Amino acid sequence: MDYLKITKIAGGILLVCLLVFIQLSFLANLPFPLSAINLVFIVLCFVTLLLDYQLGWWAGCISGLLLELYSVAPFGAIIIPLMVVLVLINFLFKLLFTNRSLSSLLALSTLGLVVYTLLHFFYLKLFFVFGWSTWNVRFDMPYVTGILWQIGLVIVGLTVIFLPLRFFSRRFKSVFIVEGRR
Question: Per the domain annotation, does 62 fall within a domain?
Answer without folding.
Answer: yes
